[in-house]
Amino acid sequence: MILPFFAPYDPRVWNVMPRNLPPSREHLLGTTNLGQDTFWLLTWATRGSLIVGLTVAFFATAIGVMAGLTAGFSGGFTDRILTLFMDTFVVIPSLPILILMASLLQGRASLLLISGILVIFNWPWPARQTRAMALSMREREFVNTAWFSGESTFQIITKEIFPYITGWAMANFVNTVLVGIATESGLAVIGLSSLEEATLGTMIYWALQHQALLREQWWWIGPPVVTIVMLFIALFLTSTGLSERSAAGRGYQYAHT
């Protein structure tokens, strides 16, 4: 996220460096067939993919958690309406719609547009799970105590219930980052994302288009693939750690309530 600010030039611009140079002291990961320094291009591509993943994860988790808490705690008509929306978006497959949209836009779909569509199809999952947790907690003694103490619904949700699901929400956030990066990269590799933006997927796309594999230019196609694998492993381990910590925390809290 920080390294691109130290790039000596904009690596996203073509033909600014000699082409097809192997790794050297001047170019740590060589140069591409498009005249770009692979190392600095990789920093921009990693940042672009992370921005997509973090944007999707933030809005999908925030909307999902608030909708799930509201539905589970409010009940009645509000619960039925919100649950209807959740189930509607859950059963609609997002990938065919993304492919259709990207095909219509012919590779000009902006990352913002793709992120927005991913948010629409990813908020129902945390919403359904949060609703289930809210339903299990709404009858607990501390919630009834807060209710009879005069706290409003909003105060009970934000002060009494939300702290119990914070750990789970963080784990879901990390998982959604994975989904965002994987979906955008998949669309980019098949040429349906914004090919003008530097992401790990578009970096692989251009390497394949210029036959980096046949030319044995491993320094072009290898770094984005390795970066994606490392990102997935790191995010998976982070999610697993947060899930275990959240489960341990809930067990401790339940034991003391």
Structural description of this entry:
By secondary structure, the chain is mainly alpha-helical. 72% of the residues lie in helices and 0% in strands. The longest helix is centred in the C-terminal third of the chain and has 38 residues, at 218-255. It is elongated, with a radius of gyration of 22 Å. The relative contact order is 0.14.
Can you tell me the residue ranges where pLDDT is under 50 for at least 5 consecutive residues?
none
User: What is the overall number of helices?
Assistant: 9
The share of residues in extended strands comes to: under 5%
- Pattern of helices and strands: HHHHHHHHH
What is the rounded Rg? 22 Å
Query: What summary fits the major beta sheet?
Result: none
From the helix content, strand content and strand pairing, which structural class follows? mainly alpha
Shape: elongated
Oligomer designation: single chain
The residue fraction in helices comes out at over 70%
Mean pLDDT: 83
Extended strand count: 0
Kindly report how far apart the N and C termini lie: 42 Å
How would you describe this structure in keywords?
mainly alpha, single chain, 257 residues, 9 helices
Ordered list of secondary-structure elements with their pairings:
Elements: H1 38-74, H2 76-91, H3 94-105, H4 111-122, H5 124-137, H6 141-148, H7 153-189, H8 200-209, H9 218-255
Helix pairs in contact: 1-2, 1-4, 1-5, 1-7, 1-8, 1-9, 2-5, 4-7, 5-7, 6-7, 7-8, 7-9, 8-9
